[in-house]
Write a structure and sequence with these properties.
heterodimer; A: mainly alpha; 12 helices; B: alpha+beta; 4-stranded antiparallel β-sheet; 6 helices; 8 strands
Chain lengths: 353, 162
């Protein structure tokens, strides 16, 4: 290789590294915008097919989304916030009234009655003392929830900025996505062109399909759960539906978490215990609907992940980045696994490995 | 008198007219509207090859369809080493028939002279046909026209030689 060529490559590499360092703080915005663009791109393509220029299509979709968000803010968000505030108020009042105020919850009161009954029959067990200790530690954890929200207000503010910036970056990604693709392919030498064009298509398909499916699943499962639980008379139905929809992105365990949210709400608020049974059946039916209708229609065929791998991924995600890590780790691993699989198969077919 | 060509003005606003005019020179797109051509141009890549450069190798997956914009491609087949190579010239198609009955390249394609190709991923092509059935019918009709013309020429040549 000629010296001038080596120097040129070194300069390009330095510029790339410097550029990455310079733009590193906006990477999360860019990732958010790419996800956003993937989700709404099919609508822009559909409009373009009917003579609507891309920029106009994007504006139209933004307006419709804006109206939907506004409707959600006016109609649904107050209910969700109200329910969340009621829950927080409940926790706060618990912390004000003393350490063992969780004992005022009807379900826990019933449980304590039974524990005391056992204690009177077998005093040596001292079950009530242990029971109160457990309640104390649970109460301590609950008392810290409002403090957590206050301590992390900066992060919450950052998240709001992130959400506001994403559509702006997304606009340009959507408008010029074909141009970006063409410009990228121009950089590829002829020798690798065929494999790169195939990889781009397949990766685009895997990522796009998965992200869109995730988005629709969150909305459909969340809405169905909220409506059904509300119909059953479960308290905090909208909040539970919202959380169940988001938890649904974790295969196998997400749906169980949705059921657990409902059970906890029924136990805390003193709803009739039979509602636990109805909620389990309702959430199970929603899962059947999701697995047999929503998922096959939106995703089609998918890559199978063993439940053990899902469990380990969720645990590792939780260990590394907390609650957010638990939610995003499975989709990230799923996508990386899918991309590596496509890469491996195609590199072999083109005799590159 | 100064007259504004309103239609041309709108077209220039909506589409990259210069790029589309270049594509109109290909018989495969002759009856396309600007809009149809604009949609199809999104999946086209223009590739330049030097003389002697390999376009694809034998047994590679059939991934991309080509239209020759400039120059000539020669195709050598392993089983026809004794025979002369097949030449594909300007505005001719490559891979459009094999796409439906082969998943591997049957020969090695090389640039005979300075070459410019329009490349279309066969996956993009099939997606385009699926999402734009009307334009797809037009496109496949034009492909058939070109292939039948080539075939007739080939038969005439064979008959003449014999």
């Amino acid at each position: 290789m000629k010296l001038t060529k080596i120097v040129l490559y070194l300069i390009i590499l330095t510029i790339i590294v410097a550029g990455m360092l310079f733009y590193s703080w906006i990477i999360k915005y860019l990732i958010g915008a790419v996800i956003f663009a993937y989700i709404i791109n099919p609508w822009i393509n559909w409009l373009e097919k009917y003579y609507v220029p891309r920029f106009l299509g994007i504006i139209m979709v933004y307006v419709v989304m804006g109206l939907l968000v506004a409707w959600g803010v006016i109609k649904i968000l107050p209910t969700v916030i109200d329910q969340a505030q009621n829950l927080l108020e409940f926790i706060r009042s618990s912390s004000r009234q003393g350490e063992i105020s969780l004992l005022k919850i009807p379900f826990i009161q019933n449980l304590q009655q039974k524990v005391i009954k056992i204690d009177t029959q077998v005093p040596i067990l001292k079950l009530n003392d242990n029971f109160i200790n457990i309640i104390k530690s649970m109460n301590y954890a609950l008392m810290n929830v409002p403090n957590f929200l206050v301590d992390n207000y900066q992060k919450i503010l950052e998240a709001v900025t992130l959400i506001a910036t994403i559509p702006l970056i997304g606009f340009f990604l959507l408008k010029d996505n074909h141009k970006f693709r063409k410009d990228f392919l121009k950089l590829i030498p002829n020798r690798y062109f065929e494999i790169v064009i195939i990889l781009l298509h397949k990766i685009d398909e895997i990522v796009g399909r998965y992200l869109r499916a995730m988005f629709f699943e969150i909305i459909i499962v969340g809405s169905l759960a909220a409506i059904v639980l509300r119909f059953l008379g479960v308290s905090y139905a909208f909040l539970i539906g919202f959380m169940a929809g988001i938890a649904n992105v974790i295969p196998y365990f997400g749906p169980i978490m949705g059921v657990l949210f409902a059970i906890v709400s029924i136990l805390i608020t003193g709803n009739p215990p039979i509602l636990i049974f109805y909620s389990i059946i309702a959430m199970y039916l929603i899962q059947v609907f999701d697995n047999n209708i929503i998922y096959p229609v939106v995703i089609g065929k998918s890559i199978e992940m063993h439940p053990l791998i899902v469990l380990l991924t969720v645990l590792a995600g939780g260990w590394a980045w907390g609650l957010i890590g638990m939610l995003v780790s499975v989709p990230i691993v799923y996508l990386i696994y899918g991309v590596i699989k496509v890469l491996y198969i195609n590199l072999r077919e083109f005799n590159l490995i | 008198m100064f007259v504004i060509d309103f239609k041309q003005y709108i077209l220039s606003l909506l589409y990259k007219k210069k790029d589309l005019d270049f594509l109109y020179s290909f018989p495969i797109f002759e009856d396309f509207t600007y809009h149809e051509l604009h949609l199809f141009s999104q999946i086209i890549q223009v590739r330049d090859f030097k003389e002697g450069e390999i376009v694809y190798q034998e047994q590679f997956p059939l991934a991309v369809l080509y239209l020759v914009a400039k120059g000539e491609i020669s195709i050598n087949n392993e089983y026809q080493k004794s025979e002369s190579p097949i030449f594909i010239n300007e505005h001719q198609l490559l891979g459009f028939i094999d796409m439906y009955n082969e998943d591997r390249r049957k020969g090695e394609a090389k640039a005979n002279k300075e070459l410019q190709l329009l490349a279309i991923s066969h996956l993009d092509f099939k997606s385009f046909l699926k999402n734009n059935p009307r334009t797809g019918v037009k496109l496949l009709n034009n492909v058939c026209k070109i292939l039948s013309k080539n075939f007739a020429g080939y038969m005439q040549q064979t008959w003449h030689n014999s």
